[in-house]
Design goal:
390 residues; alpha+beta; Chaperone, DNAj Protein, Chain A; HSP40/DNAj peptide-binding domain; 4 domains; 4-stranded mixed sheet; 3-stranded mixed sheet; 11 helices; 28% helix; flat
């Protein structure tokens, strides 16, 4: 004698939804069609369905809770339950009811297929879309920033011109499959269920080629190498992809072609770097240029020249922005900027004359000439009173 609550793995306080959920999980696990040839699974499936049939019915559940399984054997107005399913059909009907089946062939079939991956795979109807292709294209920094046009070689399946993609040398050579009558599916009866599977003769096509095309051997397509021109818009970056509709493999039996995806691989620049849509560059300047200020001319990606004004007293690391001289946004949402980071370079290999001039300058230096250094030592002395700037 089974404890129905233990069979479903639930407590006596379980709600109707919890009872149904527990039954569905266990019924799917022990269904005989998933455990063919296992008598234990069939027995468990019957017990699980019996437990659910009782606990999902408010009146039966009330009698069972009060008097146990013995209270159900009389079947007093309880649907004639006699304490156990005598046939698999009864258990399967409970199963279909729990999953929304109404006892008709069509509904049962669809429920079975959705849970056990059985037949009723949609018929291809003789046409199947072609596969999409991917190709990686290498671009220089300038090409990615400004846009360009490239020619690439691809290898794809193309429709056979002789048979126009149907695979048959003549229209009359394409016949309905006798086994499935052109549906691409065959029906197998399993007791209470009717299950559809892919037709083994036509492999789901629904058609049989009796007179194959000699040029494509009945496939309806052939492998071909060709060159394709790709227009690269300004602003692309590594990892971006460009979709070219219909340039993938041709579909089978007249199905639509797949697409071609062009993946961008942008090579680094010797001294320019990209930061979103901005371009960054590190530009060294001399101590004299930084102290006195100067003007510089910088070539741009567009082929022009930008005049950059470096103000007096410029410190190393200062960033100057030239607006609109960056990279065109790939979605045409304006252009980025050119960001110039200044690096004040300390001179090396000084001559005696240069050293003499620097020593003379050091002699007339004023603390106000170096506010950052003065601030540093003032802060340092507040923590270390004995510190000296030497």
């Amino acid at each position: 004698m089974s404890n129905y609550y233990e069979v479903l793995g639930i407590s006596k306080t379980a709600s109707a939804e919890e009872i149904k959920k527990a039954y569905r999980k266990k019924a799917l696990q022990h269904h005989p069609d998933k455990n063919q040839g296992d008598p234990k699974a069939e027995k468990s499936f019957k017990e699980i369905s019996e437990a659910y049939e009782v606990l999902s019915n408010t009146q039966k559940k009330d009698v069972y809770d009060r008097y146990g399984e013995e209270g159900l054997k009389g079947g007093a107005g309880m649907g004639g339950h006699q304490g156990g399913y005598s046939s698999m059909d009864e258990a399967l009907r409970t199963f279909m009811g729990a999953f929304g089946g109404g006892g008709g062939g069509g509904g049962n079939e669809s429920i079975f297929e959705s849970f056990f991956g059985g037949g009723n795979a949609p018929s291809r109807g003789g046409a199947q879309a072609g596969s999409s292709k991917k190709v990686t294209i290498t671009l220089s920094f300038e090409e990615a920033a400004c846009g360009t046009e490239k020619e690439i070689a691809i290898s794809t399946y193309q429709p056979c011109a002789s048979c126009k993609g149907r695979g048959s040398a003549t229209a009359e050579g394409l016949k309905n499959c006798k086994r499935c009558q052109g549906s691409g599916q065959v029906v197998q009866n399993r007791g209470f269920f009717s299950m559809s599977t892919t037709c083994p003769d036509c492999h789901g096509e629904g058609k049989i080629i009796t007179n194959p095309c000699k040029d494509c051997s009945g496939s309806g397509r052939f492998k071909d190498k060709r060159k394709v021109k790709v227009t690269i818009p300004p602003g692309v970056d590594t990892g971006m992809r460009l979709r070219m509709a219909g340039l993938g493999d041709a579909g089978e039996s007249g199905g639509p072609s797949g697409d071609l995806y062009v993946i961008m691989d942008v090579q680094p620049h010797p001294f320019l770097k990209r930061q979103d849509d901005d371009i960054t560059i590190l530009m060294p300047i001399t101590i004299t240029e930084a102290a006195l200020g100067c003007k510089k001319e910088i070539p741009t990606l567009s082929g022009g020249v930008c005049r950059l004004t470096i103000p007096e007293g410029t410190q190393s690391g200062k960033v100057l922005r030239i607006r609109g001289e960056g990279i065109q946004n790939v979605h045409a949402q304006g252009k980025g900027d050119l960001l110039v980071t200044l690096l004040v370079e300390t001179p090396e290999k000084l001559t005696e004359k240069q050293k003499e001039l620097l020593r003379a300058f050091a002699g007339i230096e004023n603390p106000s000439n170096f506010p950052a250094r003065r601030s540093f030592w003032e802060k340092l002395k507040s923590f270390f009173p004995t510190a000296s700037s030497c």
